[in-house]
């Protein structure tokens, strides 16, 4: 088979490469870090920065198509690959939209016609001084490069907003109203080269310290809300003329209003459960979409509760370093362990995940609680 190009060497790339290998493809990865999780399972590792002209040209020479696993691969790099005749999924224009929260919100609301949180752009101190009083209390987010809640400031009033904006050294920001969330949801949508779309069931997501901790598939929401979320995701993918796998994060408010939080132009942490709970995983869909194959069946054969495993789990109550008890984890029925092969466990670093599958969500929760107890994690609810 052909060689598929991959931009970014993290765990999402590793699981993509594993899906690609299962379908007979070789993967060439462009990633500056030696021994990165995806590099270890790829046929070829081009050790260069994501914007390195020489590295990009080498990738383009080998690969008829390429994808990304990291949302901050410069859109310009994807343009360079495309100019060399390598099809990129996602396309550069779609990635460019998602790399700036102000551009993204404007696109989702005004082009795709899907509602987002009340917000305004804050590009200067004058903007901060002039924001609508109705947006307080709110969250100031840097427009670019934030993830896992980094670059976010919760502010109660205008003084705090000005202070927060100054602390970013004046980079472009967006200011959003703080909303009463009932649930956080995500829908993964895949769109083929011919414009065919498929969505996975919505997942329900829980964060700890700004990092996804637990994902529940399917989300415990009404059929009407689930359908609306899937329809919104498809509208956005169509409006973006997207190719590949796109994650749409939603807020479900106390009054059942459904708003888009943000987009991730790649497979997503909340989609890990699709590996073990669905006929086709989000990673296989990425392979199919970029190679011009028909998209796979996204239906779910099991219910699932996914627990992220962070480096913190390597430290016991006395802060001593030791390996978690995988023997005990794997003795739990339906527990599927995924480790990313990272060289060093550090607190807050995503090291792996466990997906607990079962015929019903109640049983999946029971199994996930058993795993959580072994790993010393809080009970998923
Ligand atoms: P990710 O790791 O998902 O990329 P991120 O750093 O891009 O995260 P967001 O998804 O924008 O950040 O926000 C992180 C979390 O903060 C959300 O999942 C949600 O829990 C909370 N949050 C963000 N915006 C709001 C809001 N307007 N109202 C209430 N809570 C919010
Ligand atoms: Mg984000
Ligand atoms: Mg988010």
Written account of the structure:
The protein is of the alpha+beta class. The protein has three domains: 3-88, Rossmann fold; 118-177, Dna Ligase, domain 1 (2-Layer Sandwich), CATH 3.30.1490.20; 181-375, D-amino Acid Aminotransferase, Chain A, domain 1. The protein is built from twelve helices and 18 strands. The strands form three sheets. Strands 10, 11, 12, 13, 14, 15, 16, 17 and 18 form a nine-stranded antiparallel beta sheet that branches. It has a five-stranded parallel beta sheet with strand order 3-2-1-4-5, with helices on both faces. The protein has a four-stranded antiparallel beta sheet with strand order 6-9-7-8. α1 crosses α10 (282-290) and α3 packs antiparallel against α4 (92-98). The longest helix is centred in the middle third of the chain and has 17 residues, at 223-239. The radius of gyration is 21 Å and the shape is globular. The mean pLDDT is 97. Bound molecules: adenosine-5'-triphosphate and magnesium ion (2 copies). One magnesium ion binds at residues 147, 262. One magnesium ion binds next to β15.
Structure, briefly:
The chain has 381 residues and is of the alpha+beta class. Helices cover 30% and strands 27% of the residues. It has helices at 11-22, 53-62, 75-83, 92-98, 101-111, 125-130, 158-167, 223-239, 274-277, 282-290, 326-330, 361-375, and strands at 3-7, 26-30, 44-46, 65-68, 87-88, 119-122, 138-142, 152-155, 173-177, 181-191, 197-199, 203-208, 211-217, 244-253, 258-264, 303-310, 335-339, 350-358.
